[in-house]
Amino acid sequence: MRTFIIILGLLGVTTLPVAGEERALFDGKTLKGWTNKEGKAPGAGWIVEDGCIVRSDKAGDLYTQQSFKDFEFSFEWKIVAGCNSGVKYRVADYSGYSGALLGPEYQVLDDAKWKYEPDHKGATASLYAIKGASKCKTLKPVGEFNTSRIVAKGNHLEHWLNGEKVMEMDIGSADWNKGHSASKFKKRLDFGTKKGRIMLQDHGGKVWYKNLKIREL
User: Fold this and answer.
1) Domains and CATH numbers, the chain
2) 20 to 30 A Cα–Cα from 71, which one of 54, 64, 92, 170?
3) SS3 40
4) pTM value?
């Protein structure tokens, strides 16, 4: 199969990615493959600069064109002081009616400025509003790039930060039910379970994302 794909590539034939192979979601030069909420061109505040996707000004959230269910997604990010952003995944309609797109969130935040403890449900690498990250997580200073990874397979979710797994959760477990029932998502009983897009959040601060790669599981 691999030989066949290589031959087609040499002939200039475009092929679909092989299942299980890591591939880039960002080419480092353009926003090809990314859209706004409605699937149209991204807001003007999202730009490409020095190999990064940058939220430079008011833009609205940024979405992948493609949807994913089971995957490993890795990315690097940095923020300015006080920034609040995040990466949402399995973003789909959980409301029962069109228009409200939701998904689990890997929080991206200046913990120190927001005065959050490392394991707060709103701090960096938390499963936002449901479960905090490890107290022992290693977070780089503002202005330096962090490396993050999200693993989603079936009901199992993992958040990684700078090479360490800092949050693990199984949808439907007692731990999940406790956090979910106390969150703003409690009325969405199937929250986090659907195939959906990946979203980079515009929450008002400047943030840089690079080396966005995904491997479907």
Assistant:
1) 21-216 (2.60.120.560)
2) 54
3) coil
4) 0.90
